[in-house]
Amino acid sequence: MTHAPSAIDPAAPLLRAWAHARQRGGALANAALDVIFPPACLVCRMAVAAHGALCPACWRGIGFIEKPYCERLGTPFPYDLGVPGLQSPEAIANPPVYHRARAVARFEDGPVRDLIHRLKYGDRMELAKPLGRWMARAGAELLAEADLLVPVPLHRRRLAWRRFNQANALAQVVAQLSGKKADPFALVRVKPTRPQVGLSRTQRAENMQGAFAVPEAATAAVLGRKVVLIDDVLTSGATLNAAARVLLRAGAAHVDVLVFARVVGAA
């Protein structure tokens, strides 16, 4: 679930230092920091009323996914048919391995793509907090039933290159807000898969075969648990299907998916 990276945000070091200082400072210190670093839109950096917010223009540019949507895939319906629990034709024809998926917004919309790329490639780790906060709201029904949150892992080579796993950063925020445990070691990526960009749906599924495993030491943590897989973007579902399949084989009772953004059109 990768897309072409954008350049590292030149403001990233300052923003990272600001976020760290706010976490450690008291009310007076934070007030002083707000004078030095006034609140700015997460996307365009226009002045806003509070930190971690969007300006009105960027807010309007986000395609938030709200009901009515497919109970299984979480994809929005164009209008409300008044039938609870309705599934889309895609969910019926090609049901996913996981039970349900929920997302905050459509990935196709500009501000959403920018936020994901800045977190993932732009060294903007402080974005995990507001994005994770939105995810906790969008996935409230899944989190209420969950026993364990599992971030989709990176292969060790990619993790060494990127230095952090954005899915784990989001999972830690969602865990803190929901009161659920997040375990970044319950699932490992054992195969260095090639990027999914440009692959067909079938090729994506083949690319992810054998990519994940539940370590023997983690089987007890997974066995019988209701798991919510956490990732940044859901495209074709190949990565999350592969991860869910491995967790279910390891004895998980149930696997749902929570992401910040999902591709709603063809992938």
Short description:
Helices cover 39% and strands 13% of the residues. It is built from 12 helices and 7 strands.
Explained architecture:
This protein has 267 residues and is of the alpha/beta class. It has one domain: Rossmann fold (3-Layer(aba) Sandwich), CATH 3.40.50. Helix content is 39%, strand content 13%. The chain has twelve helices and seven strands. The chain has helices at residues 12-24, 27-36, 56-60, 89-93, 110-120, 128-138, 140-145, 156-162, 166-178, 201-208, 219-222, 238-249; strands at residues 101-106, 148-151, 181-182, 188-189, 212-213, 226-234, 254-262. Helix 6 crosses helix 9 and helix 10 packs parallel to helix 12 (238-249). The termini are close together. Residues 1-7 and 28-33 have low confidence and may be disordered.
